[in-house]
């Protein structure tokens, strides 16, 4: 008998914490689709082999998480415009003769901000903390929304400068004041939205962001999810509205679901049920 069920997976290392199987199965159920979606742990030096095994087993697509997003970019034979600009891929489609790489992280962040948290990015002043893959992956999607200002900062400021140089031409196209600011100069600036895209929370490190950066009318967003981070606690103590990145996780999954199934799933109930856990 032919297996009509479509198979999907999320690949990472580590992967046991991943909520992606739960999210995609919930989307599928809501839309009457019968799919398989599993979490696959790939050895750090075996990403390509792991993916080729999935392709051989006729998987339809896969999500890719840390630390393989750059390798997934290399693996893809065709790239969406967002993947090309970020040089990182979190969603793959396996077709007959090609592997299409997408990046839905930026779209996920912007949708969470705009649709779930009611923050219109147009003409806003935004500060992005961090200069790793998580930060780089969302910059283009934010520029597309034409904030008045997008400032980059990072512990290692040279990395922010390198990203700025790479993305400058896009910022000019959208007429955004796109710049780098050192952490020490932050107290003299106002931002509507401050996004933590660092991995500092993994080891509970403080970011060294001065409390004056946070205002009652600003939103402090942390891309991490699962617990209130020290960054969120700090912002909250200064009267800022705060959010973790659970909504971004669900929204980036929704965009991947749309790419694979051409259906836009409802996200709010999934966010609520995950938050209740
Ligand atoms: P990812 O792909 O998740 O972004 P990454 O490429 O390792 O991971 O980047 C991690 C980011 O978190 C970087 O911006 C890093 O700052 P540096 O570039 O200075 O290394 C930041 N980060 C990690 N630990 C940090 C800490 N303890 N304090 C401040 N920033 C930290």
TrEMBL record:
Alphabetized SUPFAM superfamilies for the sequence: Aminoacid dehydrogenase-like, N-terminal domain (SSF53223), NAD(P)-binding Rossmann-fold domains (SSF51735)
Superkingdom assignment: Bacteria
A molecular function GO annotation: shikimate 3-dehydrogenase (NADP+) activity
Pathway(s) this gene product operates in, as recorded in its UniProt entry: Metabolic intermediate biosynthesis; chorismate biosynthesis; chorismate from D-erythrose 4-phosphate and phosphoenolpyruvate: step 4/7
Catalytic activity: shikimate + NADP(+) = 3-dehydroshikimate + NADPH + H(+)
Amino acids binding shikimate: 18-20, 65, 90, 105, 225, 252
InterPro entries (alphabetical): Aminoacid_DH-like_N_sf, NAD(P)-bd_dom_sf, SDH_C, Shikimate_DH, Shikimate_DH-bd_N, Shikimate_DH_fam, Shikm_DH/Glu-tRNA_Rdtase
Domain (Shikimate dehydrogenase substrate binding N-terminal) ranges: 10-92
Active site positions, chain numbering: 69 (proton acceptor)
Gene3D superfamilies: Leucine Dehydrogenase, chain A, domain 1, NAD(P)-binding Rossmann-like Domain
Keywords: Amino-acid biosynthesis, Aromatic amino acid biosynthesis, NADP, Oxidoreductase
Pfam families in alphabetical order: SDH_C, Shikimate_DH, Shikimate_dh_N
Domain Quinate/shikimate 5-dehydrogenase/glutamyl-tRNA reductase per the UniProt entry, residue ranges: 116-201
EC number: 1.1.1.25
Binding positions (NADP(+)): 130-134, 154-159, 223, 245
Domain SDH C-terminal: 245-275
Function statement: Involved in the biosynthesis of the chorismate, which leads to the biosynthesis of aromatic amino acids. Catalyzes the reversible NADPH linked reduction of 3-dehydroshikimate (DHSA) to yield shikimate (SA).
UniProt record similarity statement: Belongs to the shikimate dehydrogenase family.
Subunit structure: Homodimer.
HAMAP family found in the cross-reference section: Shikimate_DH_AroE
Protein name from the UniProt record: Shikimate dehydrogenase (NADP(+))
Annotated organism of origin: Candidatus Methylopumilus universalis
Lineage: Bacteria, Pseudomonadati, Pseudomonadota, Betaproteobacteria, Nitrosomonadales
């Amino acid at each position: 008998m032919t297996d009509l069920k479509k198979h999907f997976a999320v690949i990472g290392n580590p992967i046991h914490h991943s909520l992606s199987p739960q999210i995609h199965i919930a989307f599928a159920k809501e839309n009457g689709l019968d799919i398989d979606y599993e979490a696959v742990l790939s050895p750090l030096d075996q990403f390509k082999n792991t993916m080729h095994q999935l392709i051989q087993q006729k998987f339809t697509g896969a999500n890719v998480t840390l630390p393989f997003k750059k390798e997934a970019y290399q693996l893809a034979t065709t790239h969406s415009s967002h993947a090309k600009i970020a040089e990182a891929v979190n969603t793959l489609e396996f077709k007959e003769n090609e592997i299409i790489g997408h990046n839905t992280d930026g779209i996920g962040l912007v949708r969470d901000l705009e649709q779930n948290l009611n923050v219109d990015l147009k003409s806003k002043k935004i500060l992005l903390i961090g200069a790793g893959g998580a930060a780089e992956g969302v910059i283009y999607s934010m520029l597309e929304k034409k904030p008045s200002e997008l400032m980059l900062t990072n512990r290692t400021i040279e990395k922010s400068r390198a990203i700025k140089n790479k993305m400058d031409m896009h910022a000019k196209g959208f007429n955004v004041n796109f710049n780098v600011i050192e952490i020490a100069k932050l107290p003299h600036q106002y931002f509507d939205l401050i996004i933590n895209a660092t991995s500092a929370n993994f080891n509970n490190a403080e970011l060294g962001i001065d409390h004056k950066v946070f205002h009652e009318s600003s939103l402090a967003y942390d891309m991490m999810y699962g617990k209130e981070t020290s960054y969120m606690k700090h912002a909250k103590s200064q009267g800022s509205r705060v959010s973790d990145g659970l909504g971004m996780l669900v929204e980036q999954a929704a965009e991947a679901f749309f790419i694979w199934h051409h259906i836009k799933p409802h996200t709010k109930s999934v966010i609520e049920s995950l938050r209740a856990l």
